[in-house]
Design the sequence.
């Protein structure tokens, strides 16, 4: 059965008689049952073609200028059975059985296509002017036009009539091809999509509109399991395996199905089809069809103007809707294929397979040839002579085609091949191995395969593939070659691998990294064996194969890198070793020996030299591949390449050796060495010679070995401290040394030279560098394991961080800083969480090894390369290089005995046996000292101690027991006297290896008898905290430690620290030259010296004023202590943080580094520390629960209490006397310079125990007990005491700010910029109680007003100082009016004086207030504002600025209300007294107008004018505060301001004549634009309108009608500047500015017209959304605005925010909208559950801002021009919208109530009939009545009751022949006296529907 619909065609197409064609009930669908079954069909622009029984019939379709189709014509094709037909623009392409392609032109002549060379074609497709064919072996051929690159050949290539091969797709196993108008697509077997050609509408899905001339991967569709693709004229659709449809390209007709008519530049899911399992998709020119096979439904969308959508309508459709097929199709038939053409649609249906008469459906898509196990099995088992030619042919076809092989052995289980990407190859390696193993069973088959691969396949490999699937061959071939040992194949493959472009190589390495272990090992074996063969041939004199070796080793290097990344345990370093390299070295040495032997002879040595150079060249090549040789071989190569000429020629000039002799003094070895290096006389290429000054000795390597050993120690003990000793005695660069004056960064350069020289001279340096240094020298990146070596404690902490639960991670309070340095921008503000902790650890490691030592290492590395000038050292692995640098780490001492030789004695001699007995008894340290004594170094050579030589020579001297052993370092000889016994030998050997220095009193000035509660001292400064919370300081101020201000000198008088005013302090502490203060809520403030980061602020910059330590915010800090240059703090839970100098380990972090941020002492984690105290360079902490004291830091004077004189970097317990654990408890810890103290008290339960005194006194605060005491009756003496107490508390901001804290659950410790930490219930209760006593409350008010408020700090150091601004309103609320007003005025003034940062925090506090408190604040300031405005209205003079202050505070509260949406409404802010002010202004204006002469005569006019000006001045203030007036009041203000504005520019006749607009109704928009462009209009005056050819005076009626008609004209303007969206909302067309007929300034003029309408108090019938008015008022639109503009889009975004993670991922969204990137690289960033909210925000911003930037800017500029008053800002967006196009509420009864009558009354029959008819009218007709009556159907603000309606009865002789008439200017309706209600109804409806001019019919 064939169903079709669309443009008119000949009924039945000539396949059947027209009367046999049936018509469906709906949708214009026709269907028929042809006599012979249609196997395939295709429709193009000019033809439709059918295949029946292998024969093709075509019919020419009617052109647009002709209404007749051609006749069905059968093509005469001889001997060819046609299997497929594709119709294009003007012709067709036919595919015959056997793969032959025929071309049909416009005349329907068919000719074979040239250029395919008898290739078997399996698929064809046609575009407008180009075609494509896919061959059986996977090659793509193209022909036709190439105007936009649609052939995919290359840029600049012209069109062709001959089939051309698309080279760039070679190797890609294609599954399907499709051609569109002028673009093309190809789909691979693994779902990769390639597009090329025209891209003007984004139809290639690449995110832009740039044409592509070669196939390009559509990255957005990667891994989407694409199984079908279809191209339309300028759009494309794809289908994923699960049935998801993506569309992209032109959306002009809705053909993308996204409920819009916009283009899409990226593939986008058709959301309306989500969940439907679509099985087919096909694209017509401008429409799309999809099939849901399971439900037998076809959906259509796009252009439907010719009926091609099958919905019965001639319209476009932007969402998929079902095509209503005939009922027959749902019974016995199923849709086999959908076809869409230019303006037609077809559904080819077949009977269901269960039906008796059903025929199998034809295979729609034929696949390319691929290799499978069944085919191989057939080759192996049937390779007899008869079958062999056929098998050879098949082998040749498969193994000569890269595409066929790349499409073979896919891992189809679980659709894994669809996951093919740059990471996954999609191959089934088990199947590959099984298949090739089977193939190798038949040698003849295998031989033929190898022959084809070598001869055809390998040379054809594409080195620049378009897709990753082309790289599968590089994984398949090694599996095959490994079974053949084909040397040529391996070398050719290596060459081809290295020819790949960098991107392809990177992908191939990724594939290798994911290979199964045995496959990867097979690859290694393949290329290692080939490399070994080539080296073997080089050793045997084979020349000119070095490049081939280099290629194989280069591939091996790639594999080695992969192995290092994967850390594959199955493959070791040994698997890469090429042992034949040793043969090469042996051969080279033999060649050198031969050369020396023949040197004095007459033989020609040129051939030997040539061969020798060839060998050396080979070694130099191998240097670049360190993994192919073992350490011993590398050492030999290194030694050989250091000076090959010297090795071969002993007679070489030795002059240079004298230059390289260093004369060194042992005492100044480092200084002398630096001198030599700096004068530059050393040749680093020649071995060094050393001579110690004053000593005899020839350097035979012994002296230079000793030199480097001594030099190592000198470097480590250098006073510049360039290197530091870390944990495990490892050495690393000091990160902070370059800040010291004595240090120069070039010092690291010279250290590098010395280390390089040691390596070059084959000596060891006793500098225990970590492996990381050698990695960096070899340009490898250190890893976490390197940090474990360098700093185990740090590494363990980081490891724990990676393993801890989320809660623990959060409790560590870490951020992205290390030692005060930010790891990323704003790192100090970014907390470490469970999500980002891995990134933090990686960056921490990078910081330690790279960032923190960047300059030092760069200098060191430069010096190292200079000191060791032979690059061969770079061939070592880091582990090998470290071993070469400071020897092996394995001390196998028995090896030393085994390598020993003896002179004048034997191993069995008593002396020798005693020696070895004593030696093995030595400690490990002394054994190493013996090595140093013997060889000048304690380092073990590579290979172990067995590589050393030790000769023991017995000395037979008199008195041997008085002599010591002697060592000849140069020769490794030990001279051993013949000692009489073992003890003497032991003593002498041990000796040989260990040895061969009252304060005055006076009162402090400046405290003025203040009550001090705490004191503290630093080195040269002191601090005191008073009871009322003020901090005083005195002493030195060299580093700002007094906290006064920068530049302030020291003082001997106590000075108040003003910046901490208002902060309720709990504790103070002073260090060396720095200071700290702690607040009651745990805020920590630091200032002073910061050279080591002791202020915890992340840097080393001194601070001269108290600064909040943000890292300790909300850490519940309860105690702080300062040392000399370090600081410690305790949190309430007992967590200890330390920071500052760590030079002596005093921070307890198991390191000696400084910390610039507070860092948890990890070793104390879990212990509830109760006290901490800091000495100069050590720290003590107390764990009260276990009675343990821990100490750490400097212990050189025993101050750590551990019995040792050493420094200690981790907390360890102090062993206290046993008595302290019995009856005593530790009261206080105290530390000094080099002392520590613990003060004990007897336990409270002990009989003799006394109560412990309070260790720290707190500031005075207000509480319930104190208030209760004040409230009691008392005598005058007691009252005086109470008054004093009230004054103390209420005059101190600090005292009040420390009162009423919310201590439950420690909430006051959460005080921050968001939370204030106050208990508001307690505040309210306390102030209510205070108000009950008049005497008390009066005193409180007096103190607050006179002392407290004037003292408030406008720029507080901490947020706690802002609590007072929350407390005082609660106090004011309980006061009487006179007291309340004054305090409120002062409070408002102080609030507005706060710094911007403090104001922001105060707003946050208001935001978090309980509802009733916030409402009370609003009421307080609104009431005071209302009283003030009332006074102004009464003519009373008020203090300037007071009203503005109140309103400013009220504005702040209103902004908070807008954020909170609490139980407060806009009405709570309305000040109704504004109407009183406006009434008085109106009366005054009327008096001045009506009575000006009389007032002038009486001399009162000046006073009245001043009163008016006073009212106006205060009214203008209100404009900036729109929230305090309702809409009606704002309108009144608007009228007043407009009147004043016109008065200011003069009421001249210009307003009548100059602003008169003469307009033609038929060209109203054009005339208006022409008038505006003349720029003669005075926008400040009101507009007057006169319609050309009509009589009428504009008394607002004509201008109202003008703006109504103008609105319609703008909406129907052909330029389409505005578009009507959903719900009839109007918005700017984002695409219009790209049109030729559109100018962006058109929006400027639309803006002017809209502004004019508003200014003239008329309405525009343009339904702009609320978002426009928000933007005009500089407010940001939100998602709710998108709900109004586009409900479908908004609903989708809302669903996105609510969906589960799986659903979000399945939507395949990225950060693009309509082809535009929302953020850089947005098309590469998928939308996830984490970032979806950001995506939604950016989406909304795009719609309302980014997409219409130019349009809105012009509109806004025009709007401001048309509305020249600044009063616009006083309206809310909703009010402005209502002023612009009227109220949305039509209350028709209001019109009845406002009506008046003339010549009739409401009870007259005519009037009653009129209202009866009116209320019977439809809603639409009622609105037409408004248009008829007033010139606009808009409802004024306030409703229809604001309209005036006068009904005048007309007494004409023939009333029933007349129509009602309206006088728009005067709101008058002339109503004839109709004889009955029916006539009235008829005449009224006619009048309102056909009124054309000025209310007349």
Sequence:
């Amino acid at each position: 059965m064939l169903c079709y619909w669309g443009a008119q065609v000949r009924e039945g197409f000539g396949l059947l008689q027209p009367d046999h064609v049936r018509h469906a009930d709906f949708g214009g669908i026709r269907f028929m049952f042809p006599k012979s079954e249609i196997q395939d069909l295709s429709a193009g622009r000019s033809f439709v073609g059918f295949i029946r029984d292998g024969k093709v019939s075509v019919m020419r379709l009617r052109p647009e200028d002709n209404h007749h189709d051609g006749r069905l014509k059968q093509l005469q094709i001889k001997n060819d059975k046609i299997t497929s037909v594709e119709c294009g623009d003007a012709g067709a392409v036919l595919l015959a059985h056997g793969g032959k392609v025929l071309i049909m032109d416009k005349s329907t002549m068919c000719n074979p296509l040239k250029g395919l060379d008898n290739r078997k074609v399996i698929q064809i497709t046609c575009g407008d002017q180009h075609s494509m064919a896919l061959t059986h072996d996977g090659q793509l051929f193209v022909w036709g036009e190439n105007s936009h690159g649609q052939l995919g050949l290359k840029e600049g290539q012209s069109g062709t009539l001959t089939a051309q091969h698309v080279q760039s797709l070679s190797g890609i196993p294609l599954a399907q091809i499709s051609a569109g108008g002028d673009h093309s697509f190809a789909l691979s077997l693994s779902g990769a999509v390639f597009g090329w050609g025209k891209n003007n509408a984004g139809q290639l899905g690449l995110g832009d509109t740039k044409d592509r001339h070669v196939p390009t991967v559509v990255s957005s569709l990667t891994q989407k399991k694409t199984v079908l693709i279809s191209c339309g004229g300028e759009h494309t659709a794809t289908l994923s395996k699960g049935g998801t449809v993506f569309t992209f390209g032109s959306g002009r007709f809705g053909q993308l199905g996204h409920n819009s008519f916009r283009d899409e530049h990226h593939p986008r899911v058709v959301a309306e089809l989500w969940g439907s399992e679509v099985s087919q998709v096909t694209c017509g020119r401008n429409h799309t069809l999809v099939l849901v096979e399971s439900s037998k439904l076809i959906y259509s969308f796009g252009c439907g103007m010719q009926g091609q959508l099958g919905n019965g309508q001639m319209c476009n459709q932007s969402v998929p809707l079902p095509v209503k097929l005939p009922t027959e199709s749902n019974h016995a038939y199923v849709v086999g294929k959908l076809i869409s053409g230019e303006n037609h649609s077809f559904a080819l249906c077949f009977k269901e397979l269960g039906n008796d008469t059903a025929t199998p459906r034809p295979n729609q898509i034929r696949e390319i040839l691929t290799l499978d196990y069944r085919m191989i099995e057939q080759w192996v088992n049937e390779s007899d002579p008869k079958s062999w030619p056929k098998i050879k042919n098949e082998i040749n076809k498969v193994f000569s085609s890269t595409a066929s092989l790349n499409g073979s052995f896919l891992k189809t289980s679980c659709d894994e091949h669809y996951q093919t990407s740059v990471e996954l190859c999609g191959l089934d390696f088990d199947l590959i191995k099984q298949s090739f193993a089977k193939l190798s069973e038949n040698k003849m088959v295998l031989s033929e395969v190898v022959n084809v691969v070598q001869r055809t396949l390998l040379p054809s490999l594409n080195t620049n593939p378009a897709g990753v699937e082309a790289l599968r061959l590089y994984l398949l071939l090694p599996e095959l070659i490994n079974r053949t040992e084909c040397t040529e194949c391996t070398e050719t493959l290596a060459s081809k691998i290295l020819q790949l472009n960098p991107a392809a190589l990177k992908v191939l390495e990724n594939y290798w990294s994911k290979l199964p272990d045995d496959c990867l090992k097979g690859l290694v074996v393949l290329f290692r064996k080939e490399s070994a063969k080539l080296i073997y041939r080089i050793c045997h004199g084979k020349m000119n194969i070095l490049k081939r070796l280099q290629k194989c080793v280069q591939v091996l290097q790639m594999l080695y890198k992969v192995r290092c990344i994967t850390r594959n345990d199955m493959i070791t370093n040994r698997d890469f070793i090429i042992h034949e390299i040793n043969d090469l070295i042996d051969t080279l040495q033999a060649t050198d020996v031969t050369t020396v032997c023949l040197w004095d002879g007459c033989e020609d040595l040129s051939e030997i030299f040539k061969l020798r150079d060839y060998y050396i060249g080979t070694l130099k090549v191998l240097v670049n591949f360190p993994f192919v040789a073992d350490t011993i071989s590398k050492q030999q190569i290194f030694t050989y390449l250091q000076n090959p000429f010297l090795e071969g020629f002993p007679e070489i000039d030795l002059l240079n050796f004298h230059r390289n002799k260093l004369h060194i003094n042992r005492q100044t070895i480092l200084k002398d060495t630096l001198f030599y290096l700096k004068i530059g006389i050393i040749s680093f290429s020649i071995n060094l010679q050393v001579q110690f000054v004053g000593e005899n000795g020839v350097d035979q390597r012994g002296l230079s070995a000793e030199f480097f050993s001594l030099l190592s120690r000198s470097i480590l003990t250098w006073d510049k401290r360039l290197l530091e000793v870390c944990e495990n005695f490892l050495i690393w660069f000091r990160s902070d040394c370059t800040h010291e004056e004595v240090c120069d960064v070039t010092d690291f350069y010279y250290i590098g030279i010395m280390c390089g020289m040691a390596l070059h001279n084959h000596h060891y340096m006793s500098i225990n560098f970590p492996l990381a240094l050698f990695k960096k020298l070899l340009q490898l990146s250190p890893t976490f394991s390197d940090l474990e070596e360098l700093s185990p404690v740090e590494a363990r902490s980081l490891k724990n961080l990676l393993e801890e639960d989320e809660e623990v991670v959060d409790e560590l309070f870490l951020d992205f800083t290390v030692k005060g340095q930010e790891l990323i921008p704003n790192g100090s503000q970014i907390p470490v969480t469970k999500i980002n902790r891995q990134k933090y650890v990686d960056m921490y490691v990078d910081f330690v090894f790279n960032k923190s030592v960047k300059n030092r290492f760069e200098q060191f590395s430069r010096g190292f390369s200079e000191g060791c000038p032979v690059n061969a050292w770079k061939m070592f692995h880091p582990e090998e290089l470290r071993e070469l640098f400071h020897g092996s780490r394995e001390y196998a001492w028995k090896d030393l005995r085994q390598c020993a030789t003896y002179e004048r004695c034997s191993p069995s001699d008593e002396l020798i046996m005693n020696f070895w007995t004593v030696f093995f008894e030595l400690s490990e340290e002394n054994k190493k000292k013996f090595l140093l004594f013997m060889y000048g170094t304690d380092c073990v050579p590579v290979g172990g101690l067995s590589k050393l030589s030790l000769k023991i020579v017995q000395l037979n001297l008199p008195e041997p027991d008085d002599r010591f052993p002697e060592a000849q370092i140069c020769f490794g000889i030990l001279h051993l006297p013949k000692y009489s016994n073992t003890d003497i030998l032991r003593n002498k050997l041990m000796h040989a290896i260990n040895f061969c220095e009252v304060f005055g009193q006076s009162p402090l000035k400046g405290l003025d008898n203040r009550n001090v509660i705490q004191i503290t001292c630093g080195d040269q400064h002191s601090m005191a905290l008073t009871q009322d919370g003020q901090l005083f300081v005195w002493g030195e101020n060299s580093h700002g430690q007094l906290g006064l201000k920068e530049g302030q000198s020291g003082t001997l008088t106590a000075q108040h620290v003003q910046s901490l005013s208002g902060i309720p302090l709990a504790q103070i502490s002073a260090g060396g030259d720095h200071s700290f203060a702690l607040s009651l809520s745990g805020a920590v403030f630091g200032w002073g010296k910061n050279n080591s980061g002791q202020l915890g602020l992340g840097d080393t910059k001194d601070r001269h004023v108290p600064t909040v330590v943000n890292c300790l915010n909300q850490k519940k800090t309860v105690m702080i202590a300062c040392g000399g240059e370090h600081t410690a703090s305790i949190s309430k839970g007992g967590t200890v943080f330390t920071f500052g100098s760590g030079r002596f380990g005093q921070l307890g972090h198991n390191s000696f580094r400084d910390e610039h941020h507070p860092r948890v002492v990890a070793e104390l984690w879990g212990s509830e520390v109760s006290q901490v105290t800091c000495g100069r360079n050590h720290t003590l902490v107390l764990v009260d629960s276990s009675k343990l004291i821990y100490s750490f830091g400097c212990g050189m004077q025993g101050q750590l209490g551990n019995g040792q004189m050493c420094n200690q970097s981790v907390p360890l317990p102090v062993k206290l006397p046993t008595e302290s654990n019995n009856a005593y408890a530790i009261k206080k810890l105290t530390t000094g310079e080099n002392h520590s103290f613990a003060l004990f008290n007897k336990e409270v339960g002990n009989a003799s125990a006394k109560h412990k005194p309070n260790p720290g006194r707190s500031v005075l605060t207000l509480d319930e007990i104190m208030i209760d005491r004040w409230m009691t009756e008392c005598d005058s003496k007691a009252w005086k005491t109470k008054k004093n107490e009230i004054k103390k508390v209420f005059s101190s901001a600090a005292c009040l700010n420390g009162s009423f804290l919310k201590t439950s659950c420690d909430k006051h410790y959460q005080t921050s910029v968001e939370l204030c930490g106050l208990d508001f219930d307690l505040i309210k209760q306390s102030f209510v109680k205070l108000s009950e006593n008049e005497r008390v409350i009066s005193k409180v008010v007096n103190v607050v007003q006179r002392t407290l408020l004037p003292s408030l700090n406008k720029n507080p150091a901490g947020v706690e100082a802002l609590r007072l601004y929350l407390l005082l309103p609660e106090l004011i609320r309980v006061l009487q009016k006179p007291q309340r007003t004054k305090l409120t005025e002062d409070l408002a003034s102080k609030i507005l004086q706060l710094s911007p940062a403090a104001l922001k925090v105060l707003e946050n506090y208001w935001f978090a207030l309980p509802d009733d408190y916030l409402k009370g604040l609003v009421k307080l300031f609104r009431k005071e504002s209302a009283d003030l405005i009332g006074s102004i209205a009464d003519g009373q003079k008020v203090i300037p600025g007071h009203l503005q202050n109140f309103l400013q505070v009220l504005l702040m509260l209103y902004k908070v209300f807008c954020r909170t949406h609490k139980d407060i409404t806009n009405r709570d802010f309305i000040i109704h007294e504004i109407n009183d002010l406006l009434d008085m202004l109106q009366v005054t204006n009327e008096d001045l107008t009506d009575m000006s002469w009389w007032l002038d005569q009486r001399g009162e006019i000046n006073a009245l004018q001043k009163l008016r000006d006073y009212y106006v001045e205060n009214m203008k203030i209100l404009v900036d505060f729109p929230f305090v007036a309702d809409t009606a009041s704002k309108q009144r203000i608007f009228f007043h301001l407009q009147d004043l504005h016109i008065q200011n520019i003069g009421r001249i006749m210009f307003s009548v004549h100059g602003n008169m607009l003469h307009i033609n109704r038929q060209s109203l928009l054009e005339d208006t634009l022409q008038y505006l462009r003349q720029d003669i209009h005075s926008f400040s005056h009101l507009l007057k309108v006169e319609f050309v050819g009509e009589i009428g005076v504009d008394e607002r009626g004509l201008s109202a009608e003008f703006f109504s008609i103008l609105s319609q004209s703008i909406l129907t303007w052909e330029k389409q500047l505005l578009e009507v969206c959903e719900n009839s909302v109007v918005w700017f067309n984002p695409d219009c500015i790209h049109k030729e007929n559109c100018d962006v300034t058109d929006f400027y003029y639309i803006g002017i017209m809209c502004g004019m309408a508003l200014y003239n108090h008329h309405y525009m019938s343009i339904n702009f959304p609320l978002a426009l008015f928000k933007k005009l008022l500089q407010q940001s639109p939100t998602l709710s605005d998108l709900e109004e503009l586009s409900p479908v889009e908004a609903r989708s975004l809302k669903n996105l925010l609510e969906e589960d993670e799986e659903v979000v991922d399945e939507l395949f969204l990225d950060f693009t909208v309509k082809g535009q990137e929302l953020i850089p690289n947005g098309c590469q960033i998928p939308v996830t559950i984490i970032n979806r909210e950001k995506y939604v925000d950016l989406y909304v911003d795009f719609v309302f801002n980014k997409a219409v930037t130019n349009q809105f800017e012009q509109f806004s500029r025009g709007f401001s021009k048309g509305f020249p008053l600044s009063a616009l800002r006083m309206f809310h967006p909703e009010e402005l919208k209502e002023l612009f196009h009227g109220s949305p509420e039509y209350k028709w009864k209001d019109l009845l109530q406002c009506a008046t009558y003339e010549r009739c009354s409401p009870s007259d029959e005519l009037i009653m009939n009129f209202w009866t008819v009116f209320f019977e009218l439809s809603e639409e007709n009622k609105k037409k009545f408004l248009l008829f009556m007033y010139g606009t159907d808009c409802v004024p603000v306030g409703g229809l009751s604001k309209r005036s309606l006068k009904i005048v009865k007309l007494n004409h002789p023939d009333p029933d022949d007349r129509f009602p008439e309206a006088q728009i200017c005067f709101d008058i309706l002339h109503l004839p006296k109709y004889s009955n209600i029916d006539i009235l109804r008829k005449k009224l409806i006619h009048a309102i529907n056909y009124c054309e001019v000025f209310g007349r019919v």
